[in-house]
Write a structure and sequence with these properties.
The chain has one domain: Carbamate kinase. 39% of the residues lie in helices and 16% in strands. It has helices at 27-42, 54-66, 71-90, 104-112, 122-128, 139-149, 182-186, 195-204, 217-223; strands at residues 15-19, 47-51, 98-101, 116-119, 154-159, 164-165, 176-177, 179-181, 207-212, 231-234.
């Protein structure tokens, strides 16, 4: 679709990566995942990273569990938690090529310079107010929305498990769902990707994948259309076996 509308500058991202805050529980794993994203970027992929809430978000949830916060407080605090995770990931302690930025224009410029922009989403979320002030909306849904706004055809969810499991049986490899339509995934409720994100992906025809950030090289394989240990999220309802992201209707390389 890029280039069909004159006067609108394409962002040109090939994939939005939601970097799950759960990966920061093991900083060695976190650094390895960041290093792999940098390697993928150097191979020619233009990556936009959307951070999860991470450790700050867990602190907010802990407070809410004992002292119920208003929806406004929880929503705004959690958006700022994503910013904090983004700042940490862009620090030289973790990365040499991640750069934190607050606008999509900055993200586009940085990507054109060979850097990996990591979006601090609070400024955009506060200005545009696109999502409900609810705990059912997580950074997964924010990342899906960012993928749609930037016309990015693929969304990768980096988390701490291999994908989405039937009945949340993450200790049973046989329960891993290897391939599923986004709409069907949304019907499962909150899994290792939130139901709102899955429903949005179905509506906007965004292909995706839920991957284990402890095995970050799986992302490169998925981008190349290879079968990987993960949950591939299709835009179509019909199951026809694994299809490369570039072969799924409504997506482009």
């Amino acid at each position: 679709m890029t280039g069909l509308m004159k006067g609108f500058t394409p962002y040109g991202f090939s994939v939005v990566v939601k970097f799950g805050g759960s990966l920061m529980r093991d900083l060695a794993v976190c650094k390895a995942a960041v290093a792999e994203l940098e390697r993928i970027s150097r191979s020619g992929h233009r990556i936009l990273v959307v951070p999860g809430g991470g450790l700050p978000d867990k602190a907010i949830e802990s407070v809410d569990a004992t002292h119920r916060l208003t929806p406004s407080t929880a929503h705004h605090a959690c958006a700022l938690a994503q910013d904090q995770t983004g700042y940490l990931l862009a620090d030289p302690a973790f990365s040499s090529e991640f750069v934190s930025c607050s606008t999509l224009g900055e993200c586009r410029t940085l990507a054109s310079q060979g850097k990996i922009p990591i979006l601090l989403p609070s400024r955009i979320l506060f200005a545009m107010d696109p999502v409900e002030w609810s705990w059912t909306i997580t950074s997964d849904a924010v990342a899906a929305w960012i993928a749609w706004v930037t016309d990015t055809p693929r969304l990768a969810i980096f988390t701490n498990v291999d994908g989405v499991y039937r009945d949340a049986a993450t200790d049973d490899p046989n329960a891993l769902i290897q391939d599923i339509a986004a709409y069907e995934l949304s019907l499962l409720g909150h899994t290792s990707i939130d139901a709102c994100a899955a429903g949005f992906m179905a509506e906007k025809r965004i292909a995706g994948c839920v991957l284990n950030g402890s095995h970050p090289r799986r992302l490169a394989d998925w981008l190349e259309g290879k079968s990987v240990t993960a949950t591939n999220i299709r835009t179509s309802q019909k199951v026809e076996g694994f299809a490369a992201p570039s072969e799924i209707s409504g997506t482009a390389s």
